[in-house]
């Protein structure tokens, strides 16, 4: 009942961070019920059987939530399916005889570690700079003390849905991390709990972001590649908050 | 006790630029990319304003020589008897020059930064764009084209370098018609103004994002606005060379040496 | 060496134990805290929350995770929600009730004192999370919303869409990153713990391998905290993340830490059945689907008609038939076992006949498609994305899968293992869930341990260490541990066998699932033990690991983990064999009521089985911790 596909893969192989890479071509026959990563598992089984080193690619949850997986499929991070992480791609979306090119996420701050695995730790530097609300364990007031309008909570959740995969950076012609950063900043800046540190947060996170990534010129590619379809609106909110943070009288910053 | 640190972790990406020494407010804003982008939007708006007004002003070309030249005079007389002649105009010019400089400088800064951000990370396979359109990807080039055009344009109509012999200071109509009726020059105008339209098509939308003007209720209006504006300026500005070539605007409508009569 | 296992649960009335204990424990004064170094392994809910809290208190924390960033930990995948006895819904919930439900749900195989403490601090977790900016679901009034989960009588489950685990982890992760920023936590990512170092009877540090460079380094501290997650992947196919493994816990076990109740594994009834041999993991479909879906299989094993053409009289709604009162909402283990029964009878559905139908036709007819859509939309999409079948046209196919492991390293009331200075938290310890975990209680336990229990109890131990320098990481114990790990690594590369690591992992999984899965019996378990041993032998002789040890080498990472799974799998089967009763997730076919219900044997088995490693060749020793129930009376479950 399930169709069988014969495909040709063109996969980026690179032995180490500073080594030169190359494309290698592998034919593969696979059932259309397989997921994209399961297809690569099978390729690796064949490679190992032939005594060749398997393709290094990262994945963990395989449910589209952990953000570990991800590479560029036919020129688009996570492939052309909208709102889908690489691990959620299934082969039935491809057609028999198709040629598929796979290469790692590309950005100066995402150095390739090996094959399709890149180092995305620069994103952690951005969080470190202010992606939190300062509250020590045990210091919290009752959860229902501060009501949060449902609309606000939902908007914050929309931003918080980011899985930190870095596809936005890979998709951006400027290698900008604006979508990721805006999602992270606005998730907290929208909530009442986040107000106290609102202005320092946006200032520190944006300035750290700019140490590693390019600037946003509003291409909108990031949103298209984002497996969680994080909205470009957050980028506008980020820019607004950032400019405000520069002119705010911090003494009165509590008042919007 | 701890050998490895996250930062010193092998592979941990090194910054592409170090955070610069903080300049005093408001210069510190301009040190950041978001700040530069903001400046770019503001100056962009200013320049758009000029281009729009300029385009409308140039419509006088259709009324005839007298009116155009009067309009030119009027510009120089701005501020009437309160301010010395051409002072206000010069203030405006300086403002315009300032905006161009800032706009270009910030554009240059951001472009440098973005090149650093994907240095050595070229896509090996041709990448596929979903959202980024021709206009957004060519802003730098359309920008440069406009820049060069403006220089040429000033040489052409303000300094008269293109027709040393025939250029007549003050006879705006004659000079404009004279230039636009020569094919090569007309083509340059047409080409440049198409580039301009593209630039505005992305720019006039992009600036809202850069300034953080965003309200899901009205967001679709931003796109319409940009498209409309780019279209309007395109039509307006293209009409001049075209009409000149087709003889509607004709240098024979006015004697070259005709001293410009304006009643004051 | 190990005498009677002492849980060190404080005396006194149940509801005062924790309060008194907090008062009686020794404190470390603020200036002295900075003199202590605590090693935390794991950055999931438990690890991240603990590392952050310890950093806030002023300890120096060395945090290790094999992930590239803490935010990837398997906790991120939790969907349903987190329990807390807030009673915001005013439906009669209370600490007492959450305590009771947890004990009963665990089939009376957990420690009263721990469970009560868990229920007690559950309320603080929600406060903490909300203050961190975790966007938990809210009602229009702006107050927090709750749902009833896993058949609980009260609505005590807090949730953030279908991504509760993700949001709670991001909360803990943000608190952690703040401490990293302040320099109190030193984060080592892509660093896998491969051994525990025990010096003069105490946990002194760990040996880790840098997954990128292959460097093997030793790290020492005053105490070691493991928060390394569950071992569900011993079954190869499970709902756990691909990289979840038992290595950290197992290596600690081999260094003397007791492993408790390995046979307590939880199966989740509603997962998407495997579609082929290349299947790499199973995807969970929220239990809530059972509220509207009706579960059935064809009466006739060789009925090949498509479901919509099978008339009512030829369908067997077996849950509704056998359990009229609860119907499709019977607890996880009951639903799971019955699915296995019908599939074993050859009445399974789908291309591989390995599932049962979960049918929404009636619900759609009753409430309309729209209602069902907005109730389960994202789930139904996920299902269609994976199977390519539209649940509105064709009933869903579901089958149980391994989901959670209640067993783990043995810990006392202070979360300290029998090895002084070694603490274990979250799913990695044998924890508070007894023989079966209630839905939405794992997140609660992980965060309770990390935010509110360990930060207190560890001080009690460290206070005694004041003035002592940690054993230097070039001490002989460290040297030999380093050497061991280095040799092992080379060893694997030198086997040069013929079959891949995944091949053996998959084969191991098949044995585990077949004989040590949902229903177990003596014959099967003995078979399993011998087959596992045999396969393990072959594995060590014939596994093929290519590449070098000085680069990122995923096969090399996996081979050690799978080797540990083999050893654990064997112990798991043995534990199941020796527990001659059925309780919670552990079902022995020999021990069931005539209704096919789990039959406990409280006289013989109201105890924790804690296993002691004695070496590769010699069998493990089974120790007991007797469970005393002073506050609840033991009762038999019945869902008729
Ligand atoms: C699909 C799914 C849904 C679930 N839904 C729910 C739910 O709705 N409600 C609920 O309460 N529970 C749920 N659970 C259970 C719950 O998610 C887990 O039990 C819990 O998150 C475990 O957290 P943890 O911190 O103990 O371990 P994990 O989150 O598994 O973290 C383990 C950490 O240890 C690190 N680590 C492991 N070994 C090593 C090593 N050797 N060296 C270095 N680092 C190591 C890993 O890198 C990771 O950071 C669900 C589980 C699954 C699989
Ligand atoms: C003179 C030479 C010019 C150069 C080199 C130039 C260059 C650029 C560049 C590189 C950008 C950034 C691209 C982006 O943000 O997507 C930009 C943006 C913009 N430009 Fe220009 N430009 C020039 C002239 C003009 C003119 C004449 C106008 C108006 C008619 C204009 C209006 C804008 C606007 C509105 C933006 C958008 C700003 C934003 O997105 O925040 N530019 N320009
Ligand atoms: C086809 C379109 C255009 C026509 C017909 C046109 C025509 C003119 C004319 C007649 C003048 C007056 C010259 C004088 O001072 O005597 C002028 C000046 C000028 N134009 Fe244009 N122009 C066009 C497009 C543009 C564009 C697109 C720009 C900028 C992006 C521009 C920028 C200027 C500037 C900066 C001046 C000098 C103004 C001053 O002297 O104060 N023009 N133009
Ligand atoms: S914004 Fe989207 S693409 Fe970028 S990291 Fe987050 S989830 Fe990935
Ligand atoms: S693609 Fe890049 S330019 Fe901005 S809108 Fe997205 S970050
Ligand atoms: S593997 Fe977790 S998001 Fe793809």
Explain what this protein looks like in three dimensions.
The complex is a heterotrimer of chains A (256), B (264) and C (640). Chain A is an alpha+beta fold. Chain A has helices at 36-49, 122-128, 150-160, 167-171, 178-190, 198-212, 221-225, 233-247, and strands at 4-14, 21-31, 72-73, 76-77, 99-103, 112-114, 117-118. In chain A, the strands form 2 sheets. Chain A has a 5-stranded mixed beta sheet with strand order 2-1-5-3-4. Chain A has a two-stranded antiparallel ribbon with strand order 6-7. Chain B is mainly α. Chain B has helices spanning 27-31, 33-58, 60-63, 65-77, 87-117, 134-137, 139-158, 172-180, 183-211, 219-245. In chain B, helix 2 (33-58) packs across helix 5, helix 2 (33-58) packs across helix 10 and helix 9 packs antiparallel against helix 10 (219-245). In chain B, 30% of the residues are buried. Helix content of chain C is 38%, strand content 14%. Chain C has helices spanning 14-24, 30-33, 45-57, 95-105, 112-132, 164-182, 247-254, 318-322, 332-347, 361-387, 442-463, 476-495, 501-516, 522-542, 554-578, 602-605; strands at residues 37-41, 60-64, 82-83, 157-158, 185-188, 191-199, 202-210, 216-220, 223-226, 259-260, 265-271, 294-298, 315-316, 356-359, 396-405, 408-409, 422-424, 607-612, 621-626. Chain C is globular. Chain C starts with 13 loop residues before the first helix and ends in a 14-residue tail after the last strand. The interface between A and C is large, with 81 and 76 residues. The complex binds flavin-adenine dinucleotide, protoporphyrin IX containing FE (HEM) (2 copies), iron/sulfur cluster (SF4), FE3-S4 cluster (F3S) and FE2/S2 (inorganic) cluster (FES). One protoporphyrin IX containing FE (HEM) binds at residues 51, 54, 58, 72, 93, 146, 150, 153-154, 157-158, 172, 176, 189, 193, 196, 237, 240-241 of chain B. Residues 51, 54, 58, 72, 93, 146, 150, 153-154, 157-158, 172, 176, 189, 193, 196, 237, 240-241 of chain B line the site of one protoporphyrin IX containing FE (HEM).
Brief write-up:
Chain A has 256 residues and is of the alpha+beta class.
Task: Map the helices and strands.
The complex is a heterotrimer of chains A (256), B (264) and C (640).
Chain A: E1 4-14, E2 21-31, H1 36-49, E3 72-73, E4 76-77, E5 99-103, E6 112-114, E7 117-118, H2 122-128, H3 150-160, H4 167-171, H5 178-190, H6 198-212, H7 221-225, H8 233-247
Parallel strand pairs in A: 1-5
Antiparallel strand pairs in A: 1-2, 3-4, 3-5, 6-7
Helix pairs in contact in A: 2-6, 3-5, 5-6, 5-8, 6-8
Chain B: H1 27-31, H2 33-58, H3 60-63, H4 65-77, H5 87-117, H6 134-137, H7 139-158, H8 172-180, H9 183-211, H10 219-245
Chain C: H1 14-24, H2 30-33, E1 37-41, H3 45-57, E2 60-64, E3 82-83, H4 95-105, H5 112-132, E4 157-158, H6 164-182, E5 185-188, E6 191-199, E7 202-210, E8 216-220, E9 223-226, H7 247-254, E10 259-260, E11 265-271, E12 294-298, E13 315-316, H8 318-322, H9 332-347, E14 356-359, H10 361-387, E15 396-405, E16 408-409, E17 422-424, H11 442-463, H12 476-495, H13 501-516, H14 522-542, H15 554-578, H16 602-605, E18 607-612, E19 621-626
Helix pairs in contact in C: 1-5, 3-6, 3-11, 4-5, 5-11, 13-14, 13-15, 14-15
FE3-S4 cluster is lined by residues 171-172, 174, 176, 178-179, 216-222, 232, 235 of chain A.
């Amino acid at each position: 009942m399930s169709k069988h596909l014969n495909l040709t893969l063109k996969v980026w192989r690179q032995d180490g961070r500073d080594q030169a890479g190359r494309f290698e071509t592998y034919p593969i026959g696979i059932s259309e019920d397989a997921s994209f990563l399961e297809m690569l598992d099978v390729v690796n089984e064949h490679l190992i059987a032939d005594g060749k080193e398997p393709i290094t690619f990262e994945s963990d949850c395989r449910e589209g939530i952990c953000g570990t997986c991800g590479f560029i499929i036919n020129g688009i991070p996570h492939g052309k399916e909208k709102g889908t992480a690489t691990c959620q791609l299934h082969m039935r979306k491809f057609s028999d005889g198709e040629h598929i090119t796979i290469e790692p996420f590309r950005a100066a701050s995402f150095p390739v570690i090996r094959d399709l695995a890149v180092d995305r730790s620069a994103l952690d530097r951005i969080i470190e700079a202010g992606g939190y609300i300062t509250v020590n364990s045990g210091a919290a007031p009752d959860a229902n003390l501060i009501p949060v309008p449902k609309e606000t909570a939902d908007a914050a959740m929309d931003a918080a849905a980011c899985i930190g995969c870095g596809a936005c950076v890979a998709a951006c012609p400027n290698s900008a991390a604006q979508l990721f950063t805006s999602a992270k900043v606005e998730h907290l800046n929208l909530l009442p709990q986040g107000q106290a540190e609102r202005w320092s947060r946006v200032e520190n996170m944006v300035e750290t972001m700019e140490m590693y990534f390019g600037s946003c010129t509003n291409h909108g590619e990031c949103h298209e590649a984002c497996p969680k379809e994080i909205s470009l609106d957050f980028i506008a909110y980020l820019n607004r908050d950032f400019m405000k943070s520069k002119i705010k009288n911090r003494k009165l910053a509590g008042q919007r | 006790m701890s050998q490895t640190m996250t930062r010193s972790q092998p592979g941990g990406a090194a910054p592409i630029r170090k955070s610069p020494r903080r300049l005093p407010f408001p210069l510190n804003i301009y040190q950041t990319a978001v700040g530069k982008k903001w400046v770019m939007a503001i100056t962009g708006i200013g320049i758009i304003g000029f281009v729009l007004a300029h385009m409308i002003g140039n419509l006088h070309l259709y009324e005839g020589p007298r009116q155009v030249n009067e309009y030119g005079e009027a510009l120089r007389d701005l501020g009437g008897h309160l301010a010395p002649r051409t002072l206000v105009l010069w203030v405006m010019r300086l403002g315009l020059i300032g905006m161009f400089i800032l706009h270009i400088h910030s554009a240059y800064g951001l472009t440098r930064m973005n090149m650093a951000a994907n240095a050595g990370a070229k896509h090996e396979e041709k990448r596929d764009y979903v959202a980024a359109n021709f206009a957004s990807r060519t802003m730098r080039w359309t920008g440069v084209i406009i820049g060069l055009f403006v220089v040429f344009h000033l040489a052409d109509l303000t300094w008269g370098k293109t027709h040393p012999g025939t250029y007549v200071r003050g006879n705006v109509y004659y000079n404009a018609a004279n230039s636009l009726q020569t094919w090569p020059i007309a083509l340059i105008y047409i080409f440049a103004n198409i580039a301009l339209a593209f630039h505005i098509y992305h720019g006039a939308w992009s600036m809202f994002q850069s300034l953080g003007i965003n309200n899901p209720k009205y967001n679709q209006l931003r796109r319409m606005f940009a498209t409309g504006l780019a279209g309007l300026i395109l039509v307006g500005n293209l009409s001049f060379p075209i009409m000149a070539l087709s003889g509607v605007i004709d240098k024979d409508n006015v004697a070259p040496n005709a001293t410009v009569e304006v009643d004051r | 060496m190990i005498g009677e296992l002492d849980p060190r649960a404080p005396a006194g009335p149940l509801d005062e134990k924790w309060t008194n204990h907090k008062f009686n424990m020794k404190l470390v004064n603020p200036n002295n805290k900075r003199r202590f170094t605590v090693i935390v392994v794991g950055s999931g809910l438990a690890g991240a929350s603990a590392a952050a809290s310890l950093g806030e208190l002023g300890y120096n924390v060395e945090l290790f995770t094999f992930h590239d960033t803490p935010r990837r930990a398997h906790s991120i995948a939790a969907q349903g929600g987190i329990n807390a006895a807030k009673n915001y819904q005013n439906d009669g919930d209370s600490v007492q009730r959450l305590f009771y439900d947890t004990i009963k749900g665990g089939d009376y195989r957990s420690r009263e004192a721990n469970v009560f403490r868990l229920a007690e601090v559950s309320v603080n977790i929600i406060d903490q999370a909300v203050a961190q900016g975790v966007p938990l679901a809210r009602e229009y009034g702006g107050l927090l919303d709750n749902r009833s989960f896993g058949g609980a009588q009260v609505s005590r489950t807090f949730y953030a869409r279908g991504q509760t685990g993700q949001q709670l982890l991001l909360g803990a992760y943000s608190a952690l990153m703040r401490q990293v920023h302040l320099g109190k936590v030193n984060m080592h990512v892509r660093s896998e713990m491969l051994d525990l170092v025990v010096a003069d009877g105490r946990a002194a540090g760990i040996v880790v391998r840098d997954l990128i460079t292959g460097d093997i380094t030793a790290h020492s501290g005053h105490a070691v905290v493991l928060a390394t997650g569950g071992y569900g992947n011993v079954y190869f196919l499970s709902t756990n993340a691909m990289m979840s493994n038992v290595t950290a816990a197992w290596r600690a076990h081999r260094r003397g830490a007791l492993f408790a109740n390995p046979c307590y594994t939880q199966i989740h009834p509603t997962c998407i059945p495997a579609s082929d041999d290349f299947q790499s993991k199973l995807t969970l479909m929220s239990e809530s689907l059972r509220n509207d879906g009706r579960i059935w299989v064809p009466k006739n094993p060789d009925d090949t008609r498509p479901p919509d053409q099978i008339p009512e009289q030829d369908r067997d709604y077996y849950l509704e038939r056998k359990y009229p009162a609860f119907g499709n909402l019977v607890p996880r283990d009951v639903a799971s076992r019955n699915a296995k029964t019908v599939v074993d009878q050859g009445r399974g559905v789908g291309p591989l006949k390995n599932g049962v139908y979960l049918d929404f036709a009636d619900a759609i007819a009753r409430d309309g498609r729209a209602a069902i859509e907005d109730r389960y939309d994202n789930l139904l999409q996920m299902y269609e994305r994976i199977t390519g079948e539209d649940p509105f046209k064709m009933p869903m196919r579901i089958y149980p899968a391994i989901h959670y492991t209640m067993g783990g390293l043995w810990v006392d009331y202070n979360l300290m293992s029998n090895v002084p200075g070694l603490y274990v938290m979250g799913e990695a310890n044998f924890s508070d869930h007894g023989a079966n975990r209630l839905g939405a209680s794992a997140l609660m336990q992980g965060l309770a341990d990390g935010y509110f229990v360990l930060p207190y109890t560890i001080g009690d131990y460290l206070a005694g260490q004041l003035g002592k320098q940690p054993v230097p990481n070039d001490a002989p114990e460290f040297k030999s541990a380093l050497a061991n790990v280095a040799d092992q690594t080379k060893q694997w590369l030198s086997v040069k066998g013929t079959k891949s690591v995944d091949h053996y992992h998959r084969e191991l999984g098949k044995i585990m699932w077949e004989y040590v899965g949902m229903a177990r019996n003596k014959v099967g378990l003995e078979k399993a033990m011998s087959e596992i041993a045999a396969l393990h032998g072959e594995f060590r002789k014939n596994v093929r690991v290519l590449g070098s040890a000085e680069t990122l080498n995923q096969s090399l990472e996996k081979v050690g983990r799978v080797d540990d799974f083999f050893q654990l799998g064997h112990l798991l089967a043995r534990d199941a064999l020796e527990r001659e009763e059925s309780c919670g997730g552990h079902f022995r076919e020999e021990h069931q009521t005539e209704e096919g219900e789990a039959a406990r044997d409280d006289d013989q088995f109201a105890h924790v089985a804690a296993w002691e490693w004695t070496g590769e060749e010699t069998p493990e020793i089974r120790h007991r911790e007797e469970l005393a129930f002073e506050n609840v009376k033991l009762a038999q479950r019945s869902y008729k």
